[in-house]
Design a protein that fits this description.
Elements lengths: L22 E9 L4 E12 L2 E11 L14 E10 L10 E11 L1 E15 L5 E10 L11 E9 L8 E11 L7 E5 L2 E4 L10 E11 L7 E12 L1
Antiparallel strand pairs: 1-2, 1-13, 2-3, 3-4, 4-5, 5-6, 6-7, 7-8, 8-9, 9-10, 9-11, 10-12, 11-12, 12-13
């Protein structure tokens, strides 16, 4: 796990609906591929004008002067997105305007994104799906023949009828010229179980995330990065 796409992350874990419950959570993951810990503070809040989502990642993969690993913070990345919806009592209620920023320290690309979000859900909001089309800006020197990002975000609560089991995630694809191609893709499905309810601490979840990426964050080609972690829901 590393610099996530937000919009997404991540959006699915916290259902993007005006009726969804506001939530803040803190995640800790161990990345088996990169062999370091990443922490994520994530929040979703709704109001009468729409909703706001953010997350902040910290990677603990620092190095001392002599090159030895010392587990200090090696980089950070954040995303914040605002969905605007003033017509939630009309037939266009599922459609929102979205503006987003993402960037960080130790992560070269900084982006502003503008576009549309379309929200689908079951009657009980336990299963959600967001479809997004966003125009994406890039730093000077980064080229794109198609500066558009397509995003799918999903969330499924009580998966297979098992209370407390949640499957969520996102998939992003956007046009960006790299050393080996014309586009970049990343997906991070997560599976969580609310183990805390078994011991009287409902805030605690355990789970896994697997990052599937192609030409992402300066790494050429296709990569698979499994993680294990915990989540505390405030």
């Amino acid at each position: 796990m590393n610099f996530k796409k937000f919009a997404t992350v991540a959006f699915a874990t916290l259902a993007l609906a005006l009726t969804a419950k506001a939530q803040t959570n803190f995640q800790t993951f161990y990345d088996f591929n990169r062999k370091h810990v990443t922490t994520t503070l994530e929040g979703f809040y709704n109001d009468s004008w729409g909703n706001t989502f953010f997350f902040i990642d910290y990677d603990f993969n620092g190095r001392s002067v002599d090159g030895k690993k010392n587990h200090t913070v090696s980089g950070s990345y954040m995303e914040i997105a605002r969905c605007l919806n003033f017509w939630h009592d009309s037939a266009l209620a599922p459609l929102s305007l979205q503006v987003e920023y993402n960037g960080g320290v130790g992560f070269g690309n900084q982006n502003f994104l503008f576009g549309l979000d379309y929200f689908l859900h079951t009657a009980d909001f336990k299963n959600t799906l967001n479809l997004k089309v966003l125009y994406k800006t890039f730093n000077k020197g980064i080229k794109s023949k198609l500066p558009v990002q397509f995003t799918v975000v999903w969330g499924c609560q009580d998966l297979f009828g098992l209370e407390g089991l949640t499957f969520s995630g996102f998939a992003d694809v956007w046009g960006e010229t790299t050393n080996v191609g014309k586009f970049v893709a990343i997906s991070e499905p997560q599976l969580w179980y609310n183990i805390g309810k078994e011991i009287g601490v409902k805030n605690l979840h355990i789970g896994t995330e697997v990052e599937f990426s192609y030409n992402f964050a300066g790494v050429d080609g296709f990569k698979v990065r499994p993680c294990l972690g915990t989540k505390w829901v405030f």
